[in-house]
Design a protein that fits this description.
This protein is mostly helical. It is built from 11 helices and no strands. It has helices at 2-25, 37-61, 63-73, 88-105, 109-127, 134-140, 147-153, 158-161, 171-175, 205-210, 216-236. Helix 1 runs parallel beside helix 4 (88-105) and helix 2 crosses helix 3.
Length: 237
Amino acid sequence: LVNALAVSLVFVALWAVTAEWSWQESFGLLHRFEMGIIAHGILAVLLLDAWMYIWHRMNHEIPFFWRFHRVHHSDPSMDVTTASRFHIGEIVFSSLLRIPIIALLGIHLGELLLYETIAFGVVQLHHADIGLPGKLDLMLRTVIVSPLMHKVHHSRWQPETDSNYGSLFSFWDRLARSFRMRDEEGFKTLRIGLDEFDDPKYETVKNIFKLPFLDIRREASKKRDKDSDRNDKADSA
């Protein structure tokens, strides 16, 4: 709710102003070429999704951004609610960076809305707690990010966490060599979430907002000290 309000009340207006300025001034990559509205729309969707791949990868590879993005990965049971589980800080960074992207690419507001509509449906699908037949999932992930493909991304094993960054189209991961899959047996042992956030206290709304600012190593050290003190008291008793 907080994220939706921030985007709808603040950033949509900024995106609209930027897109209108880009169109009026013929500024941006897509305005450099003569093309029809359909070709312009297709290229806009592709370029926006390429940017989302880059942004998602940045969230994993840059420690500052990962502090915020780990809120999304800390969910221990992935379902459609996980698709909306983002820290407000990540939403703000993403929304601000989208302003120069809209201008530089020459995206129309309608094209942004088209992309967001399509991506929303696909993102809900690949976060959903559903099991598609293996052949159907394979067919889907030749073009879009499928549920099994994205489940690998939410694995606790870091090489898998740092893979499959695509939001809408799956081919960016293949092109960038970040695509990874398991066989059918491998999915039986796949565990969702992040080890350092297994404590139920991290699932409260208050602590989800605080998550980017927590020093996890210090928290773990405090927990070990408390456990040690508890064990020492138990032994002395």
